[in-house]
């Protein structure tokens, strides 16, 4: 009887699991959440967070399907050992520098004779907005409704139940490169996992980190990863712009390695333990004794002491370049220095000492480090800046599964996400013996 009860519990637990898979260039992270019934209704609890070294991934793109599959499998095995039940479905982040976003409008006549706007009208308007010319090597990832107009009334957030003759929607259409999408999905399907959806990395992060007040005032989330920096800008509660820049924290490490003429593993340790983005904090005479690091990293080098100000100058130059690129994206939507809620930094690169000071100076905005909001967990790991994207995927998935069958105009994804992933899965399944 006990065995039957345990099996029943495991089956129910498996059905309630939501997993977020964040595929980075250096680490693959998997966060597992579970839907649990509480006093206030259904709640999301985080029950596991694991990571594995990434292989076959560079700058958000797959460079070797075989290596990427092995790395994802290793991460998956760790997670399944941790929670004790198999994981079958994942929400996956995509972080490709070739991402494009553009605005599109869709106009339809209201279907009902009494002029009341229904979900069907909204879906038809969004479908009309999708009918834009997509480059032959691109696919639509997200169609995000930004605002609606009913007859002559503009800037409507949710028109359901309103009365009118003509419904117009302005959408943000995010497109990804077809080859990158197919390579990524193929590597995941080879592990035996099903993909619930692909989600653009900064959009997922925003769900775990930003609150509605920040999104209303105007805020940007900036994720500084190993080889890419992704960002999303929100204002009046809606997505304004998103981009992926092909520069990240490993470029800082490379600069240190070149500047000090030392191996890359030693440069990484120097960056983490002694690095700072503010050279003004140090005098020209301040030296760091790195003899212990040389022993630990097994580097036979004559370099025993390094100048801390010089290291900080190397770091500052690259960090300033990253924020200059970020500011260029702000300028594209005329929001340079004009986001009252400021910039929220996440990702492994945001752990760098004094990076907030450089962000404030270069972007002329308030800056803070991101943290998980409104998510229950006994796992401290999810508050790590590196895990916030994977956590955001779980929050995203939880919201969409809870609101299945009800089209929510404020939430990108769901029924309006491109279904071409399903075609790839069916095609891949047909190849398996």
- Quick one: CATH class of the largest domain? Alpha Beta
Number of helices: 13
Rg to the nearest angstrom? 23 Å
Question: How much helix, percentage-wise, in residues?
Answer: 25-40%
Q: From the coordinates shown, what is the CATH architecture of the largest domain?
A: 2-Layer Sandwich
Tally of individual domains: 3
Strand % is 25-35%
For the secondary structure, the number of strands is 19
Shape by Cα distribution: globular
| CATH homologous superfamily identity of the largest domain | ATPase, nucleotide binding domain
Q: What is the residue-mean pLDDT, rounded to a whole number?
A: 87
Flag low-confidence runs: 4-12, 405-421, 427-433
CATH topology of the largest domain: Nucleotidyltransferase, domain 5
What about the largest sheet?
A: 6 strands, mixed
> Which structural class should the secondary elements be placed in?
alpha/beta
User: In order across it, which strands form the biggest sheet?
Assistant: 11-6-1-2-3-19
């Amino acid at each position: 009887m006990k065995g039957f009860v345990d099996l029943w519990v495991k089956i129910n637990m498996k059905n309630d699991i939501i997993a977020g898979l964040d595929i980075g260039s250096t680490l693959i992270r998997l966060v597992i959440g579970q839907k649990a019934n509480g006093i206030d209704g259904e709640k999301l609890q985080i029950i596991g967070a694991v990571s594995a070294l990434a292989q076959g991934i560079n700058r958000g793109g797959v460079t070797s399907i075989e290596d990427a599959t092995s790395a994802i499998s290793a991460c998956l095995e760790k997670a399944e050992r941790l929670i004790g039940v198999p994981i079958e479905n994942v929400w996956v982040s995509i972080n490709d520098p070739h991402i494009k976003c553009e605005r599109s409008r869709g106009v339809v006549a209201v279907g009902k004779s009494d002029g009341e706007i229904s979900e069907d009208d909204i879906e038809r308007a969004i479908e009309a907005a999708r009918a834009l010319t997509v480059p032959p090597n691109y696919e639509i990832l997200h169609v995000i409704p930004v605002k609606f107009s009913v007859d002559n009334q503009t800037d409507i957030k949710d028109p359901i139940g309103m009365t009118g003759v003509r419904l117009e929607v302005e959408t943000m259409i995010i497109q990804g490169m077809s080859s990158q999408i197919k390579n990524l999905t193929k590597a995941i399907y080879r592990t035996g996992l099903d993909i619930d959806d692909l989600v653009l990395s900064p959009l997922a992060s925003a769900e775990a980190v930003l609150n509605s007040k920040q999104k209303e005032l105007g805020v940007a989330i900036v994720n500084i990863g190993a080889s890419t920096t992704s960002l999303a800008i929100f204002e009046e509660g809606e997505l304004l712009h998103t981009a992926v820049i092909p520069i990240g924290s490993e470029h800082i490490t490379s600069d240190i390695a070149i500047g000090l003429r030392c191996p890359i593993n030693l440069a990484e340790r120097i960056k983490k333990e002694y690095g700072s983005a503010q050279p003004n904090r140090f005098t020209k005479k301040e030296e760091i004794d790195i003899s212990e690091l040389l022993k630990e990293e097994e580097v036979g080098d004559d370099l025993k002491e390094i100048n801390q100000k010089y290291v900080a100058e190397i770091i500052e130059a690259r960090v300033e370049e990253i924020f200059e690129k970020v500011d260029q994206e702000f300028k594209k939507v005329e929001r340079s220095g004009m986001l009252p809620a400021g910039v929220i930094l996440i990702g492994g690169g945001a752990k760098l000492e004094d990076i907030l000071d450089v962000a404030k100076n270069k972007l002329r905005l308030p800056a803070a480090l991101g943290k998980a909001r409104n998510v229950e967990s006994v796992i401290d790991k999810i508050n790590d800046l590196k895990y916030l994207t994977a956590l955001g995927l779980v929050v995203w998935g939880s919201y969409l599964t809870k609101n299945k069958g009800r089209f929510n105009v404020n939430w990108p994804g769901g029924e309006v996400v491109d279904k071409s992933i399903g075609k790839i899965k069916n095609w891949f399944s047909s190849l398996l013996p």
